[in-house]
Amino acid sequence: MKVSSTTIIINAIAIFFLILAFIKDKKKTKGALKAALKSFVSILPKTIMIIFAIGYLLTFIPPSAIAKFVGDQAGFGGTIVISFLGAVLFIPSIISFPLAGSLLQSGASVTSVAAFITTLTMIGFVTLPLEIKILGKKFAALRNGFSYIVALLISFLMGVILR
Amino acid sequence: MKKDNILKEYLILAVITAVTIGVFSFYPQKSTLFEKNFLNYLVQMLQIFPAVMVLSGLLKVFVSKDIVGKYLGKTSGFRGLIIAVLLGTLPEGPLYIAFPLVKELREKGAKISNLIVFLSAWACIKIPQELVEFKFLGLKFMALRLSLTIIFVIIMGLIAEKIYERPERHKA
User: Fold this and answer.
1) What is the pLDDT of residues B126-153, one digit of tens each?
2) CA B75 to CA B102: how far, in whole Å?
3) Most buried in the list A28, B67, B132, B168, measured by CB within 10 Å?
4) What is the distance in angstroms between the Cα of B154 and the nearest Cα belonging to chain A?
5) pLDDT for res A10
6) Residue B106 — left, alpha, or beta (φ > 0 → left; ψ -120 to 50 → alpha)?
7) Which DSSP letter does residue A107 get?
8) Which among A32, A55, A100 has CB closest to B57?
9) In Å, how far is A69's CA from the nearest CA of chain B?
10) Where are the alpha helices (DSSP H) in B27-64?
């Protein structure tokens, strides 16, 4: 089995901080590990569902179809659609990255993929009512409205720079 | 998340697995391709998932919300904006647990720009998430998106603050 350098780096970072934390406070570190196990168990089914979706995507949908909707030739319209999708959908960001990676692998443009994950994380459509209730309409509207514009700007710049 | 909900998700997963086995008995010629893609992503995910969960567990336990209140309430200027970004990236947890904290800080007179920057950073910049992005989209993609996000979130905070405070001045 091939282990990439990325994998090694990520695991090394985790082990480094785990040891550091353990030296600093054993009890708290145990609590952290418990919390880690809990979130692992609760996010695992969603993760595997996303991987099923990726599997179907890469098996049945030809790259040409993906490229047509959200690829370079789809242009502005494709990015707008996928950015709306990102804003409305509620996928934990941590598992949206493999999905985004598979989209990129199968012909989506950098701009579209960046728009999808940026709106997904930055705009909380599901938490918007709560944000309005606690922080007020003006604050929530300004933050989420500007977030959408900013997300599009970031994605277009990424598309231009990483072309 | 509640235990029942998790159980439900595992049940749904079992159904999806059964359906998938059914689907590929109809498309046996496609099953190797599906298996290859599915296992590839599953292995890649499992290679980093425990590490990512440990990191967010550590952040959850070692970074308290008090730190945020202590530093975000008082700072201003460019330094304040940078601190707002940093403080947003550290705590673990869903966005909505930051709302009451932001409200409290606003009442205490914290700058609106800092609060908007803080909330946006909380929403979209998290160390464990950045590592997953690094893994699946590459260092270049992750680093570029991170840098652009920090720059634009700060600009957005400053503009939003101007708009937010304008009508109040008219009323006064």
Assistant:
1) 999 999 999 999 999 999 999 999 999 9
2) 14
3) B132
4) 10
5) 94
6) alpha
7) T
8) A32
9) 20
10) 28-62
> Which chain B residue has its CA at the smallest distance from A58's CA?
B37
**A53 at the B interface (CB within 8 A)?**
no
Angle of CA points A112, A117, A118, to nearest 5°: 95
Candidates A7, A91, A94, partner chain B, best to mutate (most B CBs within 10 A): A94
Q: Do B13 and A45 touch (CB under 8 A)?
A: yes
Q: Do A51 and B45 touch (CB under 8 A)?
A: yes
Residue that has been written with the tokens 């690094």 in this structure: B134
Q: What is the DSSP string of B75-98?
A: --HHHHHHHHHHHHHSS-S-GGGG
pLDDT tens-place values along chain A, 163 residues long: 567 889 999 999 999 999 999 999 999 999 999 999 999 998 899 999 999 999 999 999 888 888 888 887 777 888 899 999 898 888 888 899 999 999 998 889 999 999 999 999 888 788 899 999 999 999 999 999 999 999 999 999 999 999 7
- Length reported for chain B: 172
- In the chain, the amino acid numbered A14 is A
Count how many Cα atoms sit within 13 Å of the Cα of residue B96 in the half-sphere of its side chain. Answer: 11
Say if pTM beats, i.e. exceeds, 0.95: no
Residue B117: C-alpha distances to residues A97, B10, B80, B125, B152 (Å): 23, 37, 10, 11, 9
Task: Please state, in angstroms and rounded to a whole number, the distance separating the CA atoms of residues B33 and B25.
Answer: 14
C-alpha distance from A71 to closest chain B C-alpha (Å): 16
Residue type, B125: I
